Amino acid sequence: MISYHVCDSCSVVLANADDSGIDPDDFDTVIATIETMGLVAHAGSYDHGGYWSCDVCDWDQIGEAQVFESIG
Ligand SMILES: [Zn+2]
User: Fold this and answer.
1) pTM of the shown model
2) Distance from residue 50's CA to the centre of ligand 1 (Å)
3) Backbone phi and psi for residue 15, each to the nearest 5 degrees, phi listed first
4) What distance in angstroms lies between residue 16's CA and the mean position of ligand 1's atoms?
5) Domain boundaries, the chain
6) How far does the centroid of ligand 1 lie from the alpha carbon of residue 56, in Å?
7) 12 alpha carbon to ligand 1 midpoint, in Å?
8) Mind listing the pLDDT tens digit for each residue in 11-70?
9) N or C: which end of the chain has fewer CB within 10 A?
10) Which of the pair, 20 or 72, is modelled with greater confidence?
11) 72 C-alpha vs ligand 1 centroid, how far in Å?
């Protein structure tokens, strides 16, 4: 099983398949990354206590990550 730590805006895309909030500059990267992740399920949140980078958009983040885990 693989865990992904994802920022809030990317978690909306993953959870709702809603790509309207993706920055146009990142759109292709985000969609391609999500496609390689395959099926994932929301598994909660994780507080990094500092900076971390989103596994989908690769932008630096601070605060809580949304955790998604691969299925099957
Ligand atoms: Zn992100």
Assistant:
1) 0.89
2) 16
3) -75, -35
4) 14
5) 3-70
6) 5
7) 9
8) 999 988 889 989 899 999 999 999 999 999 999 999 999 999 999 999 999 999 999 999
9) C
10) 20
11) 23
